[in-house]
Amino acid sequence: MDLKNIVKELKLSKEEIINYHLNTTFFIYMIGFVPGHPFMGDLNPKLFLNRLKTPRVKVPEGSVGIVEKFCNIYPYESPGGWNILGRTPLKLFDNKNKTKPCLLSPGDTVKFKSISKEEFDNLKNE
Fold first, then answer.
1. Coil/strand/helix, residue 61
2. Domains with residue ranges and CATH for the chain
3. Type and span of the H or E element at 10
4. Contact, 29 vs 40, CB < 8 A?
5. What is the DSSP letter of 47?
6. pTM, 2 dp
7. β-bridge mates for residue 65, sequence order
């Protein structure tokens, strides 16, 4: 959603931004804002950005956002003011799963990987 603006703001190429993000192992500091919403750090300093001046009313489920030194994933459609640079097909919160509704927990680590549109669709439909 925001990759073109991120390129402009940071004066980095799309490939550099993606590589910095993919080459970071993120530590989950907390789950909050909405159920299943991970706050992860620490983002490469070259990708530090402020929040959007005007938050969105709707950010799509699975959107991966960055702001300041943090990264997050929106577990379902919700408002938000983070800079969106991608999406994940993984379901982060499932209230039908009574034993473990959250996929991620504080203390976990996350490493993103690039996938094709076809892989995204296949994982989303599983």
1. coil
2. 3-125 (2.40.100.10)
3. helix 3-10
4. yes
5. G
6. 0.92
7. 72, 84
- Gyration radius of the chain's alpha carbons: 14
- pLDDT single digits (tens) 39-83: 999 999 999 999 999 999 999 999 999 999 999 999 999 999 999
Q: Residue 86, class by beta-carbon neighbours within 10 Å (0-12 exposed, 13-18 middle, 19+ buried)?
A: buried
Yes or no: say if 80 and 55 are a contact pair by the CB < 8 Å rule: yes
How far apart, in whole angstroms, are the C-alpha atoms of residue 126 and residue 124? 6
In this prediction, residues 85-112 reach a mean pLDDT of: 93
| Token duo for residue 100 | 């473990």
CA distance 108 to 64: 17
ω before 2 within 30° of 0 (cis)?
Answer: no
CA–CA gap between residue 78 and residue 123 (Å, rounded): 21
